[in-house]
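Re-run requested by the PI after the first attempt was lost when the workstation crashed. Everything re-entered from the original request form. Ligand of interest: zinc ion.
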Amino acid sequence: MLTIPGLCWLCRLPLACPAWGICSRCSAALSSPSCCERCGLPAARGVTQCGRCLQNPPPWDKLIFVTDYQPPLNSLIHRLKFTATTALAPALARLILLKVIAAIRAGSVPKPEAIVSVPLHSRRAWRRGFNQSALLAAPLARWLQCAYQHASVRRIRATATQHKLSARRRRGNLKGAFRIEFPVAGRHIVIVDDVVTTGSTVAEIARLLKKQGAATIQVWCLCRTL
Ligand SMILES: [Zn+2]
Ligand SMILES: [Zn+2]
């Protein structure tokens, strides 16, 4: 598909505001199912924390996502990552922004003070040439006037590919893999990733942020998968 500036990435109709990238009709159609506000997994409507989170809460406070990993968002993420269509990143970041603004207005999350992005394996970053989480985090930080540095979380140890490991081994695999390199004590922090699947990577970073005294931790992503 050809990129024509001024057309919506999804319906190809002219945009009222070319900078949006995705028109308001297509954005509004990207709805998420009723889910737990903490882990983002399916839950009954009106439930802020599911039974799993009440029993065994994740190390973050809130998770905000746009949709499940499904069409049309999954194919846009695929294009961003694997065809290096980096021009898509601000349009995708804006979808997260719309959800975040709604949550801040509803009083369900505090306005964040600093944003961090999940770092890639250095080998993968070198091959791909960019980190999609950083491409999403940078415009979000600019729009929300938050502190952001792409190297504020560093991967200090190469890890095995997560999806081949069991949940327990995943956590062990990530232990000591990251280092936080900015002051977090007492601040409202957000971790941005493109897709959260098991959540073990964002959980490891959230644990570190909590250990260093972060006031609250939110996770923002485009898609949450089961
Ligand atoms: Zn559209
Ligand atoms: Zn939950």
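Saved to the shared folder this time. The pocket of zinc ion (ligand 2) is lined by residues 36, 38-39, 41, 49-50, 52-53 (CB under 6 Å).
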